[in-house]
Specification:
The complex is a heterodimer of chains A (130) and B (107). Chain A is of the alpha/beta class and 130 residues long. Chain A contains 4 helices and 5 strands, in the order αβαβαββαβ. The longest helix of chain A is centred in the N-terminal third of the chain and has 16 residues. The longest helix of chain B is centred in the N-terminal third of the chain and has 16 residues. In chain B, helix 1 links the parallel strand 1 and strand 2. Chain B has 107 residues and is α/β, with parallel strands linked by helices. In chain B, helix 1 runs parallel beside helix 3. Chain B contains 5 helices and 5 strands, in the order E-H-E-H-H-E-H-E-H-E. The chains are: A alpha/beta (130), B alpha/beta (107).
Chain lengths: 130, 107
């Protein structure tokens, strides 16, 4: 059996939503659970590195990572900037979470409606929220 | 059905940890296979909690599942890892998610 066929058969679609969870004692001043954001982003990049189709959606506290108003030297912000190297070419922001004019320029960021998000969850093989 | 789990439940929430263990027991009782439990972030401390450890050992024997601790969290906390837990990277989680019928996440 050709190796390429095996690789394709293991290629699943993933929907990973990064919202930062509820504010916790480990949260930063904005209440974001950066541990959750880091863990979710790490998983997204790992899945991309293993040839998975990853749809990455930002909501809640995670939206800071896709707006140009955030600290560009922030390690998570910079890590997200490497997403295209893991075949994650575009990322999404849940509608209304941030104005389009605020989206960072070094990534292809698009708005996603709640209906589209629900539909994406229905179509994905793996759905994980962080 | 083959099920893999991501467990991020902190050790400071023992009731939630018990719920994860109850879920595993119930899934097995209903004929499902638990293939892997991947403990990530704060979930690593929950796995190694003295109170929870004996039941994790029982569940490991019952299910034959891999009990994997995220290498990043283990290194960050400089934890020692008792059996049946094994240190693993996110690649193992991705592989399990691809092969499982369901991936269930506990926070």
């Amino acid at each position: 059996m050709p190796t390429g066929w095996c690789l394709l058969s293991n290629r699943k679609s993933w929907l990973i939503t990064l919202a930062g969870g509820a504010p916790t004692s480990t949260g930063d001043s904005d209440g974001a659970d950066r541990t959750a954001l880091q863990a979710g982003l790490d998983l997204a990049l790992a899945a991309g590195a293993f040839g998975q189709r990853v749809t990455l959606v930002f909501a809640g506290s995670g939206v800071d990572l896709v707006t140009h108003t955030a600290d560009a030297e922030d390690p998570l912000y910079r890590l997200l900037g490497s997403a295209p190297f893991y075949d994650i070419d575009s990322v999404y922001v849940l509608d209304g979470a941030a104005p389009r004019s605020a989206f960072r320029n070094d990534l292809q960021v698009s708005a996603m409606s709640y209906d589209e998000w629900v539909a994406a969850a229905g179509e994905a093989h793996v759905v994980v929220n962080y | 059905m083959e099920i893999s789990l991501i467990i991020r439940t902190p050790g400071t929430a023992p009731k939630q940890c018990e719920r994860v263990q109850d879920f595993i027991q119930s899934a097995v009782d209903q004929g499902h296979d638990i293939k892997q439990c991947f403990f990530q972030g704060a979930g690593v401390s929950a796995a190694l909690d003295d109170q929870a450890l004996p039941r994790w050992r029982q569940l490991a024997i019952l299910t034959g599942a891999e009990l994997l601790l995220c290498s990043q969290a283990v290194e960050a906390s400089a934890l020692s890892v008792p059996e049946p837990f094994v240190i693993a990277g996110l690649g193992a989680l991705v592989e399990a998610a691809v092969n499982a019928d369901r991936l269930v996440s506990f926070v």
